[in-house]
């Protein structure tokens, strides 16, 4: 196990790792620099409205947008989701949780050839489809996966 | 067979109303050959699973209801009773029919005696190993939970028993309910150098590092073999997450494929997954992952007499499930030619304690391990007039007894008892001892609870558990049975979608109201910080007051769309 790596990150304090990445400019949440239109996207109550707000209406289904998510969430409050885009010239990845009151959970832009690969932990209010939307070369691509959220107990 | 045993069987059979020339008696005379399993090939695996800490021989009734939904309908393991016998060519009325089915359970149990027991299992393991040098003994897990002594020694009695038995490798599930620290302690101290604790799908939740060894490589009679471990993927969901807070699980199909590829590249010619997925999950996993020769599995407690071959992009994988409670031992032999498996033989052997003499060393160990607890274990609580069993999709008479006690003591309208698949059986007229009660309830989160719930919440709970059992996608199932329900009647439509499976919920004949509040008693809360008297204290008090427990009326839901389903007798 990487005890060293873990203790180094612990010493930085919770949240510092992400902050460090933001400072280096590897990933830039849209919210941080483009408040005008991202507000509408993040406050949209439905997936179609959110997709429209980021300019991704009518996104094409693509297997090059790869979502890794558990079939059943171990904890609905922090579901680990990762998205990789294998589409050339990917500019952004946005992630929606369909059944959440405000479905757009995060949006990331990639500059200077940064690898379009993000991992987040999202809160799910209920069993829901998680949807990734990639913008690349002015076009929108998408894929989705269902994550089951269950009360638990009663197993085997 | 000894003459005395034969005469006992004759007497029992006559009492049960068998004709004296019935097939059961004819078969009984052939018992000596039951354990003659000729060695085949060079690579040998012995496998037992889900023994649930049953060191002594027990009775265990197989389910009368194990419904297959969607693609699983009418296929192993969703076959019970006569459907199972017919499908696997087992003659009714025989010892094997008794081992694999619930048919004629009481009379057959009296005729053939108790099953399992580590001393009898040890004798069979030694016999098979004598003809199979180099063979590996695999334990599929759920070994450290299920008995009073396992709970009171925090798994120590079972770790010592499995070391003595000669287990080489194991994979876990209920083990984790002893808490992460205790698991680490047993694995790193007691088992080091003796038993490999394998779990490719348990990782730290921060960086995804392996917590345990994912696999073990061995050379067996000149052949490289690999055993990969798979823990129960939904442990933090089905059991309290706070007991293993820093670890994450899941099926991890892609990671498993990488590991299979890795062990193959290291020279493994035979690859076996030692799995605690449950058989339905294993059947799907075998269709998705290439390069495994067999999955030796457990969790769902299915005693399946033959392996199910599953085709995938890399060839075929045999899927095996070896029952529960120490009742069965699997023997899987492979022959290897040109660096790969060329053929196999398989047998799932029932452990009949009166056909296999007790191994002296194991019997001595068990007696010693139990000695400090004998008085407590043997305390007689009541006599049962009826057959007590647990296993089945919806309810069992043992669970009904627990529900009846719980609702009466707590003054509840409705009772919930978890759909566990462990827990042994008692025959009519047997004493119920403290040990028997603990065999149904011995867990590390035994609190009993009384909660006010709205009708809509009750419906939501039943729907949630129902979907964990009947979702047609095995990856969305958790391998437990339906929550047992007391006091309230309902209808279940297993093939419906979540939200529509549970219908017509009624209390004393009146429909439940969504906004009305009901008193619901339960036990085994998965949330941290629950308080309440341990369930065994609640039930023990009730039993002692009753002295004699009449046959329970087992509350079963009405079923929709299950006519002719071979998962039902």
H and E string of chain A? HHEHHHEEEEEEEE
The mean pLDDT of chain B is 94
User: In terms of structural class, how would the helical and strand content of chain A be classed?
Assistant: alpha+beta
CATH class of the largest domain in chain B: Alpha Beta
Query: What characteristic shape of chain B results from the CA principal axes?
Result: globular
- Could you list the spans of chain A in which at least 5 consecutive residues all have pLDDT below 50? 1-26, 30-35
Bin the helical content of chain B.
25-40%
CATH H-level superfamily of chain A: SoxY domain
Number of helices of chain B: 18
Number of domains of chain A: 1
Number of domains of chain B: 3
Calculate the mean pLDDT score of chain A and round it: 81
Indicate the proportion of strand residues of chain A. 25-35%
- How many angstroms does the end-to-end distance of chain B come to? 32 Å
The count of strands of chain A amounts to 9
Strand % of chain B is 15-25%
If classified by CATH, what would the architecture of chain A be? Sandwich
Question: How can the largest sheet of chain B be summarized?
Answer: 6 strands, mixed
